[in-house]
Amino acid sequence: MDTASPKRRVFRRAESARVLGAACPEIWVPRVDDGYIGGSVLNRFLVHPQADSFHFTVLVRDPKKAEYFRDLGMTAVVGSHSDAPLVEKLASEVDVVIATANCDDFGAANATLRGLKKKYETSGVAPIFINTNGLGVIAEYSKGMYASTVVYDDSDAVQIESLPPTARHRNVDLAITAADAEGYIKSYIILPSTIYGLATGRLVDAGIQNRHSMQIPYLISASLDRGQGGMAGEGKNIWGSVEIHELADLYVVLYDAIISKPSVGHGREGYYFGESGEHSLYDIGKAIGEALVALGRGDSAQPTTFSQAEVDKYFKGYVYLGSNARCRATRSRSIGWKPVKTTSDMLASIRPEMEAVIQKKAAAVS
């Protein structure tokens, strides 16, 4: 990277929350305007000790929201990550990409890689690509009937390489790590577990960023409709969890480690789990049930099994949360990430999340 450059140029695709950056970089983050992770990551970078040296460029879908980012001193481009030529062009102009958008968007990932390869060919320096995956890549579907004994560790490259190429999200991972092996990028893949908590920060306050995660709010919405907490099978399956702001910290810690220690693990050694505890689906179902009773929306705190009709109604026929996805963030912690939130914090977050969901639904119909 060009350490003589006075500014780190950042291209941020606010539309899908993807960030690009380097050691005096241009940084790109897509879908920040509705991105739960991307907006939270950007908020962390905006208060980075060296934030004044970053130049952010954002790609947004809404021209009005683009003006907000321009007011913050960023360059805002109105467009979409589905525009492959545009994505390729913007990636070719940056030093670091931090991608937090759809981890199954193979087309956007490939367009980004093509652009970063052009960057490498013109600069001679491999740009940084921090991509976001999901624990679906290690998920073992148990229909909620048992807890798996298999626990993945991000420091075990051999274990991760044993994942089949047909695993969920895996095709994108393999394309990115293959590019690292070719030498034209340095790749780092962050894999968050169940993300919880209401996002806060200036983008939320401005009405730009989505406050809600997906997994727990989906369960809350379904449970509000049925008047009782729900689960797949007996809810015995186990997932890891991580609080949204602590997850955002991981991106900054990783970025700082990359810049200060060029030897930090990348490629096959570059997987970083976001995990600070684990829970069963039953635990979440019960916490939802308790919140329903406390808010006068249910009569029993005991969760019950979703019927097939409910699975079809709420989850399009497939209760993905009935799977196991257990992990340990050994490598993430080794670079200085220090999450302090626990499973108890995750369960305690469910009632305020439910209150926010109820408020959002009421506002939508008023």
Describe this structure in words.
With 366 residues, the protein is an alpha/beta fold. The chain is globular and about 65 Å long. The chain starts with 7 loop residues before the first strand and ends with a helix. The N terminus is likely disordered.
For the structure shown, list the relevant keywords:
3-stranded mixed β-sheet, globular, alpha/beta, 366 residues, 5-stranded mixed beta barrel, 14 helices
Short description:
40% of the residues lie in helices and 18% in strands. The chain has 366 residues and is α/β, with parallel strands linked by helices. The relative contact order is 0.14.
Number of distinct helices: 14
Biggest sheet layout: 5 strands, mixed, barrel
Strand percent estimate: 15-25%
- Distance, first to last CA: 52 Å
Structural class category: alpha/beta
The count of β-strands is: 18
Q: What is the averaged pLDDT score?
A: 89
Rg from alpha-carbon coordinates: 20 Å
Please tell me what the overall shape is. Answer: globular
GO molecular function, one term: aldehyde dehydrogenase (NAD+) activity
Organism: Mycena pura
Protein name: NmrA-like domain-containing protein
InterPro entries: NAD(P)-bd_dom_sf, NAD(P)-dependent_oxidoreduct
